[in-house]
């Protein structure tokens, strides 16, 4: 399978704990995105990388959230001191290197439950 | 906020064409129309996109009105596996900060046997 992969698929944690999620994009894609999706809503943009550079962050990305893409390949999203409101599906997407193609390909997501 | 409006839900009989409308009356000349769908518990799946010409691929057809203020996604022969939430999104066709995909609530399509 050469699609976007995310790990873990499910995470249950207690309030106040730190969690880290990983995303492996499609290998030739240089753009990588993180989204958050709560029940019944569409995905909400969190942050965007082009290669290793984090070029954009949503105001939804509070100080407790940090994302990295150190070598321009896989990316990690860390949430510190989790709160119950962080419970959501966290989606990663990648898009091609082409200057004229912006369709994004999504992974299966990581479902976070904060108890 | 999403720049598109879509019906909340639609039903379609299996084997019939599903026509999903989308209004984007404030679309700019450099904005493309993208369609995605999300099957329950999966990530969104890219379907098709277009600027002003009608487009067709192996999944669907996209019909954009001449004034570009609305579009219709057509699934020619809907199957039960097409039951999903369908999102219509507009965005510019080049990298521009603040112009990432903005998903609205979408249309929940139910394909009925």
Kindly describe this structure:
The complex is a heterodimer of chains A (115) and B (113). Chain A has 115 residues and is an all-beta fold. Helix content of chain A is 0%, strand content 49%. Chain A has strands at residues 5-7, 10-13, 19-24, 31-37, 44-50, 53-57, 65-68, 75-79, 88-95, 105-106, 110-114. The N and C termini of chain A lie far apart (33 Å). Chain B is mainly beta and 113 residues long. The model of chain B has no long low-confidence stretch (mean pLDDT 90).
Short description:
Chain A is mainly beta and 115 residues long. Chain A is built from no helices and 11 strands.
Gross geometry of chain A: globular
Strand order, main sheet of chain B: write it out: 1-9-8-3-4
Number of strands of chain B: 9
Helix fraction of chain B? under 10%
Essential attributes:
heterodimer, A: 115 residues, mainly beta, seven-stranded mixed sheet, four-stranded antiparallel sheet, 0% helix, globular, B: 113 residues, five-stranded mixed sheet
Ordered list of secondary-structure elements with their pairings:
The complex is a heterodimer of chains A (115) and B (113).
Chain A: E1 5-7, E2 10-13, E3 19-24, E4 31-37, E5 44-50, E6 53-57, E7 65-68, E8 75-79, E9 88-95, E10 105-106, E11 110-114
Parallel strand pairs in A: 2-11
Antiparallel strand pairs in A: 1-3, 3-8, 4-5, 4-9, 5-6, 7-8, 9-10, 9-11
Chain B: E1 9-13, E2 18-23, E3 31-38, E4 45-50, E5 55-56, E6 61-64, E7 70-75, E8 84-92, E9 107-112
